[in-house]
Every structure is written in structure tokens, then in C-alpha cells.
Design brief:
heterodimer; A: alpha/beta; five-stranded mixed β-sheet; 3 helices; 25% strand; B: alpha/beta; two-stranded antiparallel sheet; 34% helix
């Protein structure tokens, strides 16, 4: 395993204030690096190329919607794995929901292609430079991003469901 | 088996005139009888109901004894579209296309809660019942239904097939029904 202190040292000396924080999260002791969204491509490239780190495997890429974080509602998360030393880290960036744009990771990881399409599909994150950014799982005619929390999860056309049978009160009465 | 043992009369003849060497009935009754015992189903199986249907097709429940010996995997030669399982909204256009490709006369059986109403999947990505996109003749409830229920559903379809008027598919009501779904 690569010591977290080494990664922390390399990141802070290389990027300085462009990295917002480098810390271990308490539950699983995973290293979480929060970076400025404009610098994500550079950070990923640095972690990929550095011969002591070699984070060359993108385990996953996804987004999270935090409606309460004003101005940085959409978090884009990259899970990286250094196969060479079997070390995993998390990279997080926060984007405003009004303008969720970030550089693509497909130039570095071919695996990012479908993951970014999925993230676009469900959260509406625009990945600049993606070769084919279109919906991947939902139907093309869908006109919203369903995993954003302002949209209801349920379909809403069902007439056969009595809310009291599900242990919940009807909040909005039909007028 | 002795020579006097009776051969069970499986299919009752329709009402008509019988004499020495002839039997006369109306054309739609004769055609209804023929169609009833030769329904070729197209299994459109997408999830666990499809597994239950495979049990229904198998030797134990033997779907074939109702004249459905041949499951048709081409919509062109199918009479009955059996939709079994959750239909995601992305699956809706292919399902509708399969229905359109089937030749008249055609019937539709919705098997299970998902195909009938969306079932437990009250969510943005799932079609809330296939009757939103194609007309349905028989709904089989259950999650998934037992093979006995599927057979009961097929018997219901058989009754519809047997009693259908030959003019039904040309009637303005039927054309209006298809137009409601944007077909033809």
C-alpha cells in the first residue's frame, strides 16, 4: 500500500491551493482528495503518470446530488485504484447545479466513456470533450435527469396505490 | 383398453346440423373452433414471469396440450402476444413494434403484476402497464403467477378466440381502439 502521507505530500506540493482538501475519511480510512473542478484533468493525469503512484485504473465514476450545498450541489466522484501497490483513493469535485460542466476523463481512461454517459444521463453533468455524450440507460426522449432530488422517484400515474396501506399519509390533497 | 372403452371427446362440436356423413354449422363457429385450438403464442419474456412461463411450457404443465405446441419467436406467424415481466419505458417501442408486426387476428395476454400495472416498480423508468401502449385482452394477476394461473389465462383467451365474430377486426370500434394507441 502506498502511504497516504506520501500521496498527500505529492498532491499538495504539485497542486497547492488547487486542491481543496486531502484527508482520510473516518469510516474506512480511505483517502479523499477534494479538488477544484477546473483542475480535475490535471490531477488525474498527475496521479496516472507519477511513477510512485500510478493510479491507472478507474474503478468507478459517478455523481451525487446534495441539494443543501448551495453553489456546489453536484459532486462528481472518481474512484481510482493503483494496481501496482493495491491502493485506492477517492477524488471529489463539486459543481454548481446551474452549470454542471467538467472536463472528460476519457482521454485518460477508456472506461470513463460509459460512466460519464451514465452520469450525464442521471445527473445532467456535461463532460467537456466526451466523444459521444448521450443518454445510455434511459429512453432518449426523457426530458429530465431522474436522479436529481427535485424530481420524484415514483412514476406518479398509478391509481391503484392507497398511501395509507404503505404507512404514509397523503401530504397533498387533490383540490 | 377394451374395444368398448369410450374415447374421451375432448372437443365439443359447435351447435349445428348433423346427419349421415355431414355436419353443418356457421362459418365463424367453424373458424373460431379451428383458431381456438391452434393459438401460436409469442413469449415476450423479460423477467421472472418468463421463468414461470418456461415451467408452464415444460412437460409438467404442458402448455402444448391446448394447441399451443409451437411458441412463435417471429411476430409474423404469432396469434397471441404473451407479455411476461417488467417492461421498462425503453422497452416500450420494441414491444409496440412487435405487436404491430403481428398479423390479424391477434390477441394479447399480460402476465403478472408488472405487465398489467407496473407492479412494485412504481418508478420513472418503468411502464405502468402495457395497456399504455397496446390493447390487452386478458390480464393474469400474480407476482409471478403460478403456471395454473397462466393456463387459466390462456383458457380465457381461447374463449375469446372461439366466440369472436369474423367481422370484429373490420368494425369501426376495433379500428377506433387501435387508433387510440396510434396503431395503423
Amino acid at each position: 500500500m502506498i502511504p497516504h502521507s506520501l500521496i498527500q505530500e505529492k498532491i499538495t506540493t504539485r497542486f497547492g491551493n488547487d486542491v481543496i482538501s486531502v484527508e482520510e475519511e473516518p469510516l474506512y480510512k480511505a483517502l479523499v482528495i477534494t479538488v477544484h473542478p477546473e483542475k480535475i484533468a490535471e490531477v488525474l493525469k498527475f496521479l496516472y503518470d507519477d511513477k510512485d503512484l500510478q493510479f491507472q485504473f478507474l474503478t468507478s465514476l459517478f455523481a451525487v446530488h446534495y441539494p443543501e450545498r448551495k453553489g456546489e450541489e453536484i459532486a462528481v466522484v472518481y474512484l481510482l485504484h493503483s494496481l501496482w501497490k493495491n491502493t485506492r483513493i477517492r477524488i471529489k469535485t463539486y459543481l454548481p447545479v446551474s452549470h454542471p460542466e467538467i472536463d472528460t476523463a476519457t482521454t485518460l481512461f477508456a472506461a470513463a466513456n460509459w460512466m460519464e454517459r451514465e452520469t450525464y444521463d442521471f445527473f445532467g453533468v456535461i463532460f467537456r470533450g466526451h466523444p459521444h455524450l448521450k443518454r445510455i440507460l434511459n429512453i432518449d426522449s426523457m426530458d429530465y435527469f431522474p436522479m436529481r432530488k427535485e424530481y420524484p422517484l415514483e412514476e406518479g400515474t398509478r391509481m391503484d396505490k392507497d398511501d395509507t396501506m404503505f404507512g404514509r399519509e397523503k401530504v397533498i390533497e387533490k383540490s | 383398453m377394451t374395444a368398448t372403452a369410450k374415447i374421451p371427446n375432448l372437443v365439443q362440436p359447435p351447435p349445428g346440423y348433423e346427419g349421415h356423413g355431414f355436419f353443418a354449422t356457421t362459418l365463424d363457429k367453424a373458424i373460431g373452433l379451428a383458431r381456438k385450438y391452434s393459438i401460436w403464442p409469442l413469449p415476450f419474456a423479460t423477467s421472472c414471469c418468463g421463468i414461470e412461463f418456461m415451467a408452464t411450457m415444460g412437460a409438467h404443465y404442458d402448455f402444448a396440450r391446448f394447441g399451443s405446441e409451437r411458441p412463435s419467436f417471429s411476430p409474423r406467424q404469432a396469434d397471441l402476444l404473451m407479455v411476461m415481466g417488467t417492461i421498462a419505458k425503453k422497452m416500450a417501442p420494441p414491444l409496440k413494434q412487435v405487436y404491430i408486426q403481428m398479423a390479424e387476428p391477434k390477441w394479447v395476454l399480460a402476465m403478472g403484476a408488472c405487465a398489467s400495472s407496473g407492479g412494485i416498480f412504481d418508478t420513472y423508468s418503468v411502464l405502468q402497464g402495457i395497456d399504455e401502449i397496446i390493447p390487452v385482452d386478458v390480464y393474469v394477476p400474480g407476482c409471478p403467477p403460478r403456471p395454473e394461473q397462466v393456463i387459466d389465462g390462456l383458457l380465457k383467451i381461447q374463449e375469446l378466440v372461439k366466440n369472436e365474430s369474423l367481422r370484429k377486426r373490420h368494425s369501426p370500434e376495433y379500428k377506433a381502439l387501435l387508433a387510440k394507441y396510434g396503431i395503423e
